[in-house]
Amino acid sequence: MNFLFVEKLRLTTPKCVFRYPKLIEPDTKFNPDGDYKVTAMIPAAEGAGIADQLDALYEAHKSSLKEQAPGQKFKAVDPSFGYEDIDGVPHFTLTAKSKAKGIARDGRAWTALPPLFDASGAAVKDRETLRSMWSGTTGRVSFEACPFFNPAIGAGITLRLKAVQILELVSNGGSANSYGFQEEAGWSSSSQAESQVPFDGTGTAVDEGFDF
Fold this sequence. Notes:
This protein is mainly β. The chain has one helix at 44-68; strands at 9-12, 16-27, 35-43, 81-86, 89-99, 101-103, 109-111, 116-117, 138-150, 154-168.
């Protein structure tokens, strides 16, 4: 049976924190062709609007399928969005992804990159500058919420990544803020004197009583 699906939604998150962004090099762990993806972590109060819209779409999708096939049982696929506590703070999280490549119906191979934009809204031309993007980067995620049904998998909502705006970049290793550290009075790496172990003329470290 060919089902008719309820209309998909096009949504954009408010400013959020990225978790495990794979926007430059696709993730091939579960799909050999690769998926670009990112998880957006939004404080619960700010994410409530998107959460309500996605929940409503999911319920409308399930109701529509049941109306079209009252006697058929449908398995519900767990959505890639929902509420969770992060460091004791409630958040709404969602994971959006897009395929890196595939084969079109006419047999031609295709590749695709998610459009990336900077804080000013300008398109990122040199994507290599973002290769070291890390969790903790902040930005906004544009995606489509698309109802689907596969007899072998079930019925659900998939979030298709459309574009990403990067507001504050965190490179691998992270920044002090990304670990929750704030500026305090005290030791400064910029003012520390270089600490060296003295060497004798042979290039051997001189024993000054240190235990190794």
